[in-house]
Design goal:
Radius of gyration: 21 Å
Shape: globular
Largest sheet: 6 strands, mixed
CATH architecture of one domain: 3-Layer(aba) Sandwich
Distance between the termini: 39 Å
Oligomer: single chain
CATH topology of one domain: Rossmann fold
Structural class: alpha/beta
CATH superfamily of one domain: P-loop containing nucleotide triphosphate hydrolases
Strand content: 25-35%
Number of helices: 9
Length: 259
């Protein structure tokens, strides 16, 4: 029976628990199987379509992430990484298995998502902080820190439509890391800005890990995965190929990628 449970319980050893999770997507339509079959044998026809026209994004995936640990997730495009993040974020539901997440979740899946192009950088920072779960007064109390970290200069008072994509990403990252999450979900978020700013972002994530924030970090940047992760899971065709120490898993992944 498929289920998903999200809890704010503070006593659990694990911040994230994935138990035998499978997730599939429909990839076709009923149009190609014929109206007659659908009308005469509806149950059988739909069952056949489901069996033949579904893509399995994740199959039987299980792992746990202890509080304060960072699990790096690597794999080729289409291996199920983004689906996994969506399940942990609570925007997707598994077909079977359980997803349990304990604490406030902050998803950095698309930096700047939810920003409004006509609002200023300051206004978007406040709005996004509230959307991520902070009371407005708390966002205002941290606003100077958010803007200083984003390094937007005079642009903070200009409409977002005047920002470059990198500036939008920097603001999105800065808001997210200042809302005190218990669980931080990241999908290729360290490609923002120049090398110096990326280094600052990496240092911020290391600071989070030291403070006990749990992180699930999806990336193709192996050096960053090695730098911030305690463990690494290699997803391949929707299944966990290897789960272990960062150096072990990254070495196996690199070897397989060169083959």
């Amino acid at each position: 029976m498929s289920s998903e449970l999200q809890s704010t319980g503070a006593s659990a050893r694990y911040a994230i628990e994935i138990d035998d999770v499978t997730k599939t997507y429909a990839t076709g339509s009923l149009a190609g199987i014929g109206l007659k079959n659908l009308l005469v044998h509806p149950a059988r026809t739909v069952r056949t379509w489901r069996n033949l026209r579904r893509h399995t994004a994740l199959e039987g995936v299980s792992f746990s992430v202890e509080r304060g640990q960072c699990l790096g997730v690597i794999g080729q495009n289409g291996s199920g990484k983004s689906t996994l993040l969506g399940l942990v974020a609570g925007v997707l539901w598994p077909d079977s298995g359980e997803v349990r997440v304990h604490g406030r979740v902050c998803p950095l899946l698309e930096l700047g998502a939810g920003f409004h192009p006509e609002l200023t950088g300051v206004e978007n920072a406040i709005m996004n902080g509230v959307l991520l779960g902070l009371p407005r007064r708390e966002v205002l109390a941290r606003l100077d820190q958010i803007l200083d970290f984003a390094e937007l200069g005079d642009f903070v008072d200009r409409p977002l439509r005047m920002f470059s994509s990198g500036m939008v990403a920097r603001l999105g990252f800065s808001v997210a890391v200042h809302v005190d999450p218990d669980v931080l979900l990241m999908d290729e978020v360290l490609s923002v800005g120049d090398e110096r700013f990326r280094k600052k972002c990496t240092e911020k994530l290391q600071e989070f890990r030291d403070r006990g924030v749990t992180m699930l970090f999806v990336s193709h940047a192996m050096e960053t995965v090695l730098e911030v992760s305690n463990q690494v899971a290699w997803l391949r065709n929707g299944k966990i190929e290897t789960l272990g120490t960062p150096s072990e898993v990254v070495d196996r992944y690199r070897t397989a990628s060169r083959a």
